[in-house]
């Protein structure tokens, strides 16, 4: 079999059968078909008697058919990849050749004069030419598919029928070098089970599908974009498929397919954890944000971070006149600079390596660039790190936010959008408390501007949401690395749950809420259903194809909650322009008092112990109650 495979592989290469070679074979088919047609109608004896004249007449027929081959390029296709379209072109080329032959015969009488050729002989020749050319191509394609193609392709099932499934199948069939070979379809629609679609059987998408796919030697399931949402309704089947070692491929989230036009099979990728989360896709109309940010100067802090860099991408596509990008991480900022140069070269992007807590540097930036919009995403965010470094949380998160917010007012920035976190709600750790202080400050400053106590025009908007999947330091990349090393996968507690959102979705909500807000709002996002971290870990292990990795529970870390909240117990919400965005009705603070307390906290932090710093934070945020932390002593 290997010898036959190598032999056919050499024969099927383009160099072994060039275009002119295909043309020669087709012309030989015409020549032999002409003689065969004459023999069928007149007998072998007449063929022998009129051999030289018949040879001349047949060569004329070859020339006539060659014109048809030239018009429809029948010899240009790769024979082993012949498709229905190629067969149609052969038929059209033969009709043209047949018509030219009849025309020449009627005008010259050449065939009738020398060999008593009849119109019936010419027509029969055309039928034989079509049959032989079709037969050769079908046989070569079948030989290639059965010997070579079987070794180079993977058998697949397609989940989804109608438009989506048919689009995937057409894309596979249209590709000459496709690595996929369709063996069947799967669907939840019972009225289609057992029927055939495009020559392939339609199976039930359920537990029995595993046996069906194994019987067809298929190890890949391609999922139509139209039925992606149905995967969440069939978790048991999806888990069973993954456990059975069947790979599931889907369209990338960045690629939206509306059910019309072509669907490129090469864009499909293996399914990821984010595709399987029990959550609804958030649809966002970005037109208002685009209208507001186009042609504007926009400053983004924390521009190299997970959230900040995605906000950069979201804003850049709206065509701002200038993007001022600030972060203190040099290498990630260099990556942002390269991204902007490659993807949005028309946007003026200024990448600045700077510390937002440095007032002189930040003042120079505001003075030189006069930003009209500010998206403030810079922050220290890791809970255990900030428990050990409360001074860093105060300087970077609190002082940095105050500096940027005050400069926004001084330089008459139109709008200041702050990215906050659900950990600011009833905070149990230093990081969450520092972000709550930031929320209090920008909201009190917004009220002071509106009341005329502070001179300015800036509107301050705060956005609050939970964990984002795949962000730096989040559980997803940590679990991926632990699985790569063979485990164990570490989870702090079997009952710990978190709300999750995709980074692009979270940032689109930030941009939309920020541009639609009128100042003073604290927007909270509907994060969907919370997810158990242990379940998240199990699903990632399944997706990796590993069955030998254990989950190890390590205990809650300092300052960590079992359950995160988006709202305080005393907070209520109001509806907004988007069903996934609510406005939290929170307590109002007096700007003069807040400003004084924060200035004292920032000024004195350098000379205070960790315990003293946290004690002052608790006085500003009375609901800050530490958990699993040495700072619990302060709550007594």
The coarse silhouette is: elongated
Query: Radius of gyration from the CA trace?
Result: 35 Å
Instruction: Tell how many strands the DSSP assignment holds.
Output: 22
What average pLDDT do the residues reach? 81
Compute the number of helices: 24
Low-confidence stretches: 1-5, 7-15
Decide which structural class fits the backbone.
alpha/beta
Explained architecture:
- The protein is an alpha/beta fold and 636 residues long.
- Helix 17 crosses helix 22 (591-605).
- The protein is elongated, with a radius of gyration of 35 Å.
- The termini are far apart.
Quick summary of this structure?
With 636 residues, the protein is of the alpha/beta class. Helices cover 50% and strands 15% of the residues.
Summarize the topology.
Blueprint lengths: L1 H11 L6 H24 L1 H6 L1 H22 L11 H25 L1 H6 L3 H34 L1 E6 L2 H13 L5 E8 L8 E2 L2 E5 L4 H7 L4 E4 L11 H9 L3 E4 L18 E2 L2 H4 L10 H7 L3 E5 L4 H11 L5 E6 L2 H14 L4 E6 L5 H11 L3 E4 L6 H6 L1 H21 L4 E7 L8 H22 L7 E7 L1 E3 L5 H10 L4 E3 L5 E2 L1 E3 H14 L5 E4 L5 E2 H12 L6 E3 L18 E4 L5 E5 L5 H15 L4 H11 L11 H4 L1
Helix pairs in contact: 1-7, 2-4, 2-7, 4-5, 5-7, 12-20, 13-20, 15-17, 17-18, 17-22, 18-22, 18-23, 19-21, 22-23
């Amino acid at each position: 079999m290997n010898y036959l495979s190598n032999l056919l592989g050499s024969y099927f290469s383009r160099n072994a059968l060039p275009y002119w070679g295909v043309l020669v074979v087709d012309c030989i088919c015409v020549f032999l078909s002409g003689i065969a047609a004459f023999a069928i109608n007149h007998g072998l004896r007449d063929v022998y008697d009129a051999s030289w004249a018949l040879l001349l007449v047949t060569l004329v027929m070859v020339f006539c058919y060659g014109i048809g081959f030239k018009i429809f390029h029948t010899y240009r296709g790769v024979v082993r990849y012949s498709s229905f379209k190629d067969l149609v072109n052969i038929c059209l080329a033969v009709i043209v050749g047949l018509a030219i032959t009849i025309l020449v015969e009627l005008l010259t009488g050449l065939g009738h004069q020398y060999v008593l050729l009849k119109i019936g002989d010419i027509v029969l020749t055309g039928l034989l030419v079509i049959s032989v050319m079709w037969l050769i191509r079908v046989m070569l394609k079948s030989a290639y598919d059965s010997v070579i193609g079987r070794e180079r392709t993977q058998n697949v099932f397609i989940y989804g029928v109608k438009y989506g499934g048919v689009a995937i199948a057409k894309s596979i069939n249209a590709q000459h070098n496709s690595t996929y070979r369709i063996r069947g379809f799967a669907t939840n629609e019972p009225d289609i089970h057992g029927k055939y679609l495009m020559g392939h059987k339609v199976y039930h998408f359920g537990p029995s599908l595993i046996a069906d796919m194994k019987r067809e030697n298929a190890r890949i399931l391609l999922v139509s974009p139209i039925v992606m949402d149905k995967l969440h309704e069939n978790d048991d089947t999806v888990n069973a498929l993954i456990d059975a070692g069947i790979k599931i491929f889907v369209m990338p989230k960045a690629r939206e397919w509306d059910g019309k036009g072509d669907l490129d099979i090469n864009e499909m990728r293996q399914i990821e954890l984010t595709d399987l989360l029990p959550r609804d896709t958030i649809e966002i109309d970005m037109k208002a944000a685009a209208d507001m940010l186009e042609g504007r100067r926009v400053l983004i802090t924390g521009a190299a971070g997970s959230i900040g860099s995605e906000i950069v991408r979201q804003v850049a596509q709206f065509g701002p006149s200038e993007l001022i990008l600030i972060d203190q991480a040099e290498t990630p900022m260099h990556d942002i600079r390269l991204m902007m140069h490659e993807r949005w070269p028309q946007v003026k992007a200024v990448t600045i390596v700077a510390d937002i807590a440095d007032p002189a540097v930040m003042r120079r930036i505001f003075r030189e660039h006069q930003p009209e919009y500010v998206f403030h995403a810079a922050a220290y965010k890791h809970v255990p790190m900030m428990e050990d470094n409360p001074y860093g949380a105060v300087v970077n998160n609190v002082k940095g936010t105050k500096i940027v917010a005050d400069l926004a007012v001084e330089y008459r920035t139109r709008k200041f959008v702050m990215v906050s976190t659900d950990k600011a709600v009833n905070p149990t750790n230093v990081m969450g408390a520092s972000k709550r202080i930031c929320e209090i400050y920008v909201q009190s400053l917004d009220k002071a501007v509106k009341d005329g106590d502070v001179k300015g025009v800036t509107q301050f908007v705060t956005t609050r949401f939970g964990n984002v999947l795949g962000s730096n330091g989040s559980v997803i990349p940590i679990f991926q690395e632990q699985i790569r090393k063979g485990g164990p996968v570490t989870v702090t507690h079997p009952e710990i749950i978190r709300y999750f959102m995709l980074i692009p979705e979270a940032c689109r909500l930030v941009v939309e809420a920020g541009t639609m807000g009128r100042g003073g709002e604290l927007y909270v996002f509907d994060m969907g259903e919370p997810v158990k971290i242990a379940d998240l870990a199990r699903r990632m292990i399944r997706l990796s194809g590993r069955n030998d990795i254990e989950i190890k529970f390590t205990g809650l870390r300092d300052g960590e909650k079992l359950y995160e909240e988006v709202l305080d117990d005393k907070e209520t919400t109001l509806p907004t322009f988007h069903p996934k965005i609510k406005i939290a009705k929170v307590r109002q603070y007096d700007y003069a008092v807040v400003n004084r307390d924060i200035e004292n906290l920032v000024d004195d932090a350098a000379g205070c112990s960790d315990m003293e710093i946290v004690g002052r934070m608790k006085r500003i945020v009375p609901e800050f109650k530490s958990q699993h932390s040495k700072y619990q002593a302060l709550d007594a």
